[in-house]
Specification:
The complex is a heterodimer of chains A (252) and B (260). Chain A is of the alpha+beta class. Chain A folds into two domains: 58 residues, no CATH class; 175 residues, Oxidoreductase, molybdopterin-binding domain (Sulfite Oxidase, Chain A, domain 2). Chain A is elongated. Helices cover 61% and strands 2% of the residues of chain B. The relative contact order of chain B is 0.12. Chain B has a two-stranded antiparallel ribbon. The longest helix of chain B is centred in the last third of the chain and has 40 residues. Chain B has a domain of 38 residues. Chain B has eleven helices and two strands; from the N terminus they run αααββαααααααα. The chains are: A alpha+beta (252), B mainly alpha (260). The complex binds protoporphyrin IX containing FE (2 copies). One protoporphyrin IX containing FE binds next to helix 3, helix 8 and helix 11 of chain B. One protoporphyrin IX containing FE sits at the interface of chains B and A.
Chain lengths: 252, 260
């Protein structure tokens, strides 16, 4: 019924071959340069991989927008929290003096740090916006030690690809790639708006990533592990939220 | 003419293989294959984006203007529906199940597909002359006489003239051009302006909109605009003959005998 000319058949054939080859080459390159997220398989894999790869290529070093002090939200919003565990309450009763951050995995010198040790390292602060995946946002000043500084102290092995970070509270952990781990705005946060970080906002220690949304900013962090493989953790998708059906990379 | 990308211009008819007889029995399709494929891909993505967008919306059915917004701040407006989060004071005594995980995955995947589809359609539209010749209104369409005649006949719900089965009238051209060149790019822009990673590289994309929450509010208002467009689009197609018009958009052909 349809009248196809030979020229059209040849062009269509060539275009299709080029397309398939191009896709193959792109997939190969994406794997080679670490542009495939841990949840890059499955039905939503193509979209996630495109988002992650595009944003890694465009934003590897870019800094999240910083605001002026007058723009700090008068009423920031601490999200709801599950009731605290007894373990957390014991630390809280002691004003977190015994709180420690342990770092292990692919590092030269596994170590653990107290909050006052972390506070004695060079600090950095930034006034940035944090947004929840539900759609709401607020701006605050975040004060902490760049994660990269603490990672330098323990010596990250060259083949480490991810930092997995855990809250003291059960089922609360996430992971990030080295681009975010070494990013200058990524802070082990202990202060907010010129004061100690309130418990509602994650005190004594919160992981703060400026270019991903709220759920990657785990509260009450007490352990980091460096790894080149996320499979052994939880269901293997690299975080409690991605195990629960959310995207691992949350830069949108 | 099952060709991708080439416009059904008379040039096709002069290709060496095509015999004069074949040309006579296969007239240029009403809608080229590329326009049809991209239209239906767009429609598919649109419904995926709409459903998942609404799922995302119910986790915080409040909209703000400016940079920040949360339940401690007064909203620009609220949608009076229950929420999927306990945090939001909706006045309803219950909380809907959280569907944001797959909704966000699908929203962003469909967003990629719709962007590629839109690019393909726009490149084709510009280079094949489709936009210039068949979609954008020309001076002859925009004369006051033609405009008022079109508006009057629409107000009287008159069935379209025979010629309109083969070409778009001026109001249609204006509406399509607005959707393609204003609403669609704005949708992508306001979507990207909500990404903290994207705006770290291109901060002006969000600052000139007035901030993150303004981008979110505009994204939502554009959703309403698209739904209104779709409503009128479908109403017009019903008035013109849903079956014939939709078949022409699927197969590319107008059946003249059956056409009104
Ligand atoms: C016609 C197509 C589209 C429709 C109908 C649509 C609809 C919606 C709706 C209703 C929301 C919920 C608003 C909220 O509560 O935040 C939303 C959120 C969103 N959409 Fe779309 N959208 C469309 C296309 C796009 C595109 C093309 C992009 C990306 C370029 C995009 C990116 C987003 C983002 C990033 C969010 C916010 C998610 C969050 O709150 O974190 N959308 N969309
Ligand atoms: C929000 C979703 C939609 C948008 C933005 C949209 C947009 C458009 C545009 C821009 C055109 C002109 C295409 C061109 O010639 O380049 C068109 C044509 C058409 N669309 Fe849609 N469309 C949508 C959904 C639908 C749906 C659900 C149907 C279902 C029947 C439909 C049926 C048609 C038909 C039949 C035509 C040809 C009109 C004619 O021959 O007069 N569209 N649409």
């Amino acid at each position: 019924m349809k009248h196809l000319s030979r020229r059209k058949l040849i062009t269509t054939g060539l275009a299709a071959t080029a397309g398939v080859t191009g896709l193959g080459v792109a997939t190969h390159l994406a794997h080679k340069y670490g542009l495939v997220p841990p949840d890059g398989g499955g039905i939503y894999g193509p979209g996630e991989t495109l988002t992650y790869a595009a944003q890694r290529l465009l934003t590897r070093h870019s800094l999240a927008r910083e605001f002026s002090p007058v723009e700090i939200s008068a009423k920031p919003l601490a999200n709801e929290l599950a009731p605290f565990s007894d373990e957390f309450k014991r630390f809280q009763a002691d004003k977190f003096t015994d709180w420690r951050l342990a770092i292990d995995g692919l590092v030269d010198r596994p170590a653990s740090f107290s909050v006052s040790q972390i506070k004695s390292y060079p600090s950095r602060s930034h006034i940035t916006e944090i947004g929840c995946e539900e759609g709401w946002t607020y701006i605050a000043e975040w004060i902490g030690t760049p994660l990269s500084h603490v990672l330098d102290l323990v010596g990250v092995k060259p083949h480490a690809k991810y930092v997995v970070y855990f809250s003291i509270e059960p089922d609360w952990w996430e992971s990030m790639d080295m681009a975010d781990a070494l990013h200058p705005q990524t802070l082990l946060t202990y202060g907010m708006n010129g004061d100690d970080l309130p418990v509602g906002f994650g005190g004594p220690l919160r992981m703060r990533l400026t270019r991903q949304i709220g759920y990657k900013n785990v509260k009450f962090v007490n352990r980091l592990t460096l790894t080149d493989n996320l499979k052994p953790f939880g269901k293997g998708t690299g975080g409690a939220n991605s195990d629960g059906g959310y995207a691992w990379y949350a830069g949108i | 003419m099952a060709t991708l990308g080439s416009a059904p211009t008379p040039v096709d008819a002069s290709l060496p293989i095509a015999s004069p007889a074949a040309v006579a029995t296969t007239p240029a399709p009403r809608h080229s294959l590329l326009v049809r494929v991209t239209h239906w891909l767009f429609t598919l993505c649109f419904f995926a984006l709409l459903v998942t967008g609404i799922e995302i919306l119910i986790s915080h059915p409040r909209f703000y203007w400016g940079e920040t917004g949360n339940i401690n701040m007064s909203p620009l407006f609220k949608i009076p529906i229950p929420s999927s989060r306990n945090l939001v004071p909706t006045g309803y005594g219950y909380v809907l199940p959280d569907q944001n995980g797959w909704s966000r995955y699908l929203h962003f995947q469909a967003a990629w597909l719709v962007v590629f589809t839109g690019l393909l359609y726009a490149l084709h539209g510009f280079f094949s002359g489709h936009f210039r010749k068949r979609l954008l209104p020309g001076p002859e369409h925009l004369s006051r006489k033609n405009l008022s005649a079109a508006i009057l006949s629409h107000l009287r719900f008159e069935p379209p003239a025979e010629a309109e089965a083969h070409s778009y009238n001026v109001l249609q051209r204006l509406a399509y051009a607005f959707a393609i060149f204003a609403m669609f790019p704005m949708m992508i822009w306001t979507g990207l302006a909500m990404s903290p990673a994207f705006t770290s590289a291109f901060p002006v994309t969000v600052t000139i909109l007035g901030g993150h929450q303004s981008a979110r509010t505009l994204h939502f208002l554009l959703t309403i605009a698209f739904v209104l467009f779709l409503f009128v689009h479908l109403l017009m197609i019903f008035l013109a003959g849903f079956f014939h018009r939709t078949r022409a958009m699927i197969t590319g052909r107008v059946n003249n005998r059956a056409d009104s």
